[in-house]
Amino acid sequence: xxxxxxxxxxxxxxxxxxxxxxxxxxxxxxxxxxxxxxxxxxxxxxxxxxxxxxxxxxxxxxxxxxxxxxxxxxxxxxxxxxxxxxxxxxxxxxxxxxxxxxxxxxxxxxxxxxxxxxxxxxxxxxxxxxxxxxxxxxxxxxxxxxxxxxxxxxxxxxxxxxxxxxxxxxxxxxxxxxxxxxxxxxxxxxxxxxxxxxxxxxxxxxxxxxxxxxxxxxxxxxxxxxxxxxxxxxxxxxxxxxxxxxxxxxxxxxxxxxxxxxxxxxxxxxxxxxxxxxxxxxx
Length: 283
Known about the structure:
By secondary structure, the protein is α+β, with helices and mostly antiparallel strands. The protein folds into two domains: 3-93, no CATH class; 104-270, no CATH class. Helices cover 35% and strands 24% of the residues. It has ten helices and ten strands. Strands 1, 2, 3, 4, 5, 6, 7, 8, 9 and 10 form a ten-stranded mixed beta sheet that branches. A hairpin with a 2-residue loop joins strand 4 and strand 5. The longest helix has 23 residues, at 104-126.
């Protein structure tokens, strides 16, 4: 125990006892919401419960794959991280993507994305939508070279129960792959299957918004069609900017990006560039 801590302990034994509990027992006994409530209502100094170390222990016990960088648990970075925490608890996180958040910029971007997708999900249900789910994971995104299949390691999600009917009762870990093409984004869900299996694999019509939590790159596509038979699907309503993949001098052929996906049931309509017609650019 340091001299300052010993002095405080002599002056206020109750405070020293409470600080010992905060550093050892509270993170193991309380979920983050319990720690937040205790911090808000405790009469003792907030510095005892506001330590980044205490929050790191508490969150790591409850949600070990969220973040490992201690800086993210200090103020003010903790605000963005905890916004992500509450939203991620209601989302579906890819298997093996640890940690989910690696730096402060990702936490801030992901917090905004999940807030917007949460509101969109609530509106989708209120408008009569049957299912809606938010998926979060890290993707190895490639610049597509024209092959029929996408290469590279997939990002795997365990299919949410409410989507089983839409996926034809497909109850297994489902691989997702993303790639970039000159005119849009390519999505592959599942593995290539024979025709008979394909007919069973997809019963409903699903679409997906794909957005990246990355301040240095742009990836934002809406209403990408989703099929689970391993066939390539193309999304054109959106844009992407990946300087390292577009530069001819760059040796990079893929980048790892933290993405949030908003998956829902809907009738997919082929996107047409109405803006061009409005501006008369087709003439």
